[in-house]
Specification:
Two copies of one chain form a homodimer.
Chain A (H helix, E strand, L loop, with lengths): L1 H21 L6 H7 L4 H5 L5 H25 L5 H16 L8 H8 L6 H26 L9 H21 L5 H16 L6
Helix pairs in contact in A: 1-4, 4-5, 4-7, 5-7, 5-8, 7-8, 8-9
The structure holds a DNA duplex (30 and 30 nucleotides).
DNA sequence: TGCATAAAAGCACGATCGTTCGTCATCTTC
DNA sequence: GAAGATGACGAACGATCGTGCTTTTATGCA
C-alpha cells in the first residue's frame, strides 16, 4: 500500500517532465518505464490506461500551478499588489526549472483544443477558473480604488493572459533575451491604463 | 511529371488539414494515405521521409499565412490603417474554415519549442520575420505621425501578438463567444496608448 | 516468522508506426 | 511500335505503441 503510492508519485514526477517537453500525447508508457527502470506492465498497472495517466499528469500540473502561482499570490495585499503578484509568480512559473518545456497547461491548451475528451474538459475547467481568478483580483483592485471603476475585469484578464502568452512565445520559441523586459513593460503599460486618471 | 505534382499537392492539402487539428507530430503517413485513397508507400515516395512531409506542410502553412495576412495587409494605407489591417486579417485567418484547428503556426510554436531540428529552425525564422514585419508597420505608423514617437515598435508587436494569442486561447480552447469582442477591445486600447496625446 | 496481499515483472497480443524494396501500369519520347 | 521515365502498389521489415494475462517477488501485518 505504502510502497505503491511512493513509486506512483515517482512515476508521475518523471511523466510530468516528459510531458512538459514532449507534450501530453508524446507520453509513451514504454519510454516512461525505461526512464524509471521498471517494466511497462508494472508501470501501467498504476494508471489503468494511458488516458488515466494523462489525466493524472494534468492534475499534477494544475496542483503545482496552484501551489506556485495561485496560492502565493493570495498572500499579497488585496488590489494592485495582488495583481502584480499573480503576474510575477506566473512568469516565474514559466521559467521554473521544474518546467523544462514551459508551462504544461499552456502547451496542453493548444494540444487539446481540438481533442474532445475528459482531458480537455478538465483543462477547460482549470483555465476558466484561472481566468475567473484573474478577473476577481482585478475586481478587488477596483474596489480598493487602485484601478478605475470603468476597468473591465474580464478584459483586463484577457490582456494579462495575452502578455503571458506572448512572453511564453518569445521566450520559449524565439529564445529572445528581451522577452522578460518586454513582458514587464507590457504589464506596466496595462496597469497604467487601469490607474485612476490624475486629478487636475 | 505533371500527374505527380498534382497528387502531391492534393496530399499536402489534406496533410495540412490533418496537422491543423492533430498537430505536426500527429501526422501519420498511414492515416494520410487512407484519407487520400492511396497506399502508404505511394504517398511516402512523394516526400522521402516523415520529416520531409512535416517541413512541406509547415512551408505550405507559412505560404498561406503570407497570402492571407501578410500580403493583403500591404495593400492598406501606410501607418495605422496597415496596422489595423494586419490585426484584422490575422484574426480572420485564425477563424478561417481552412484552418480547422486554428493557426498551425501557433500550434507549431508550442509543439516545436523544445524539439530541435529543421522544422523548428524554419518556424523560428518565419516567426522572427513576422515579428519584424509587425514592428516595421508600427515604425511606419510613427513616421506617419499616427503613433507617438516614443512608441516602442518591438514592444507594440509583442503586445499585439499577445492579444492574438489570448484570442486564440479564448476562442479555441474555451470556446468563449466574447473572445472576438475582447480581442477588438484590447486592440483598440493598445492603439489608444500609441496615439498622440491630445493637444491642450 | 509466516502469510495475505500488494507490487512488479514477464510474456504475448494485435495495431500501427516509418521505411524499404521489387513490380507493374501508364505515359512520354524517339 | 520500342525504350525509358514516372507514379503508384503490395508486401514485408523491425520498432514501438497500449493493453491484457499469468507468474514471481516484495512488503506489511498477525
Amino acid at each position: 500500500m505504502r510502497k505503491g503510492e511512493a513509486t506512483r508519485e515517482r512515476i508521475l514526477e518523471s511523466a510530468f517532465e516528459l510531458a512538459s517537453t514532449e507534450g501530453l500525447a508524446g507520453l509513451s508508457i514504454g519510454r516512461l518505464a525505461e526512464r524509471n527502470g521498471m517494466s511497462k506492465s508494472g508501470l501501467f498497472a498504476h494508471f489503468g490506461s494511458k488516458e488515466g495517466l494523462q489525466l493524472d499528469v494534468l492534475e499534477l500540473a494544475t496542483a503545482r500551478f496552484r501551489d506556485r502561482v495561485f496560492t502565493p499570490a493570495l498572500r499579497a495585499d488585496r488590489g494592485e499588489p495582488r495583481v502584480r503578484a499573480l503576474f510575477n509568480h506566473w512568469l516565474e512559473w514559466i521559467d521554473d526549472q521544474s518546467n523544462p518545456g514551459g508551462c504544461m497547461l499552456t502547451a496542453a491548451a493548444i494540444e487539446l483544443d481540438d481533442q474532445p475528451g475528459p482531458a480537455r474538459d478538465m483543462l477547460v475547467d482549470v483555465q476558466r477558473q484561472w481566468a475567473e481568478m484573474l478577473a476577481r483580483a482585478v475586481r478587488i483592485a477596483i474596489e480598493e480604488r487602485h484601478f478605475r471603476a470603468d476597468v473591465d475585469p474580464a478584459l483586463f484578464a484577457f490582456q494579462l493572459y495575452g502578455i503571458v502568452l506572448s512572453y511564453h512565445h518569445a521566450r520559449r520559441l524565439l529564445r529572445d533575451p528581451r522577452a522578460r523586459r518586454r513582458a514587464r513593460d507590457a504589464f506596466e503599460a496595462l496597469i497604467q491604463t487601469a490607474h485612476p486618471r490624475p486629478t487636475r
